[in-house]
């Protein structure tokens, strides 16, 4: 294999996929990027057997000196390309004894390779159900819910995000058993389409990253994204080529995202949504953030518990204490409807919700030991459920 390519083109293609490579994986080759060079294009692949990212780069005439395939260490290849001068020409040539020579100007690097035929492939989705949604809405669905995914849990299905299609809406749901985040968006699909799929945590983060990177490139322009759900995989193709004066993206660099879905049954999130709530509190989001940040300083380090005392309309007491007998108390202005009540929350859970809400927030409550529904005022498309705690 022999390639001569502009540094910027190669580095962009590498940067978009390199995070999928996993040098800590039991399969050493998954710490590498696979390179497949043909006369017209260079295909770069990174994978950890859960998420596979592929950059397909259209090549100018003369870039492919000799077609071939190899694999190179992902981190080393990216770091070398980053360190080279802007607009440098990069030359890659495979040699005998599993070596690859990378030269640029007066720089020369020799990297170890591994056989490309040993590089595993996830494959492609079968029996595809395509869902088309605007990129900005997709980012919103993921961003507003991903914080509630479990990090480590024997209930492996909680370590991902549910994509639920019903009633011509796409709903994303994440929960760790203590709190739940839900976001909805109307999509153009058949009215009778019902589908559920659970996307693993790393795949959720990578999909949001790619969609956000595309957004930075396009600026104010939005574009449609097609999510191709199969029985075992989700696949998405995103155009990262040059943007013309009309805001259209060329096809000279395409990134294909493929992720293995979690095989499990997600809990029925509709059953945990609070109903028959007879108490309502309305807070200013910024003031609530400030109060929680101060009061939580003296909360118990493990439980992070804070107590809300809803005694009357107008002011709500927020307090916290710890094993050292320290105590913090602050009053916050609020509109409250209902009987007096005390509720205890994990401050971090409430802060996570406040971090994705822009305006005034509502807390819908029933009793001190029942879950609480939180949402932004006049926004029914994003809902959050937090379980109270005992202190």
TrEMBL record:
CDD domains: beta_clamp
Keywords: Cytoplasm, DNA replication, DNA-binding, DNA-directed DNA polymerase, Nucleotidyltransferase, Transferase
Keyword DNA-binding listed: yes
Residue span(s) of domain DNA polymerase III beta sliding clamp C-terminal: 270-390
GO BP term (any one): DNA strand elongation involved in DNA replication
DNA polymerase III beta sliding clamp N-terminal domain sequence ranges: 1-122
Entry-linked Pfam families: DNA_pol3_beta, DNA_pol3_beta_2, DNA_pol3_beta_3
Cross-referenced InterPro entries: DNA_clamp_sf, DNA_polIII_beta, DNA_polIII_beta_C, DNA_polIII_beta_cen, DNA_polIII_beta_N
GO cellular component terms, semicolon-separated: cytoplasm; DNA polymerase III complex
DNA polymerase III beta sliding clamp central domain ranges (all copies): 133-268
Record flagged with keyword Transferase: yes
GO molecular function per UniProt: 3'-5' exonuclease activity; DNA binding; DNA-directed DNA polymerase activity
Location in or out of the cell: Cytoplasm
Assigned protein family: Belongs to the beta sliding clamp family.
Self-association state and partner proteins as the record states: Forms a ring-shaped head-to-tail homodimer around DNA.
PANTHER family referenced in this protein's UniProt entry, alphabetically: BETA SLIDING CLAMP, DNA POLYMERASE III SUBUNIT BETA
Role according to the record: Confers DNA tethering and processivity to DNA polymerases and other proteins. Acts as a clamp, forming a ring around DNA (a reaction catalyzed by the clamp-loading complex) which diffuses in an ATP-independent manner freely and bidirectionally along dsDNA. Initially characterized for its ability to contact the catalytic subunit of DNA polymerase III (Pol III), a complex, multichain enzyme responsible for most of the replicative synthesis in bacteria; Pol III exhibits 3'-5' exonuclease proofreading activity.
The protein's name in its UniProt record: Beta sliding clamp
Organism, scientific name: Psychrobacter arcticus (strain DSM 17307 / VKM B-2377 / 273-4)
Gene assigned in the entry: dnaN
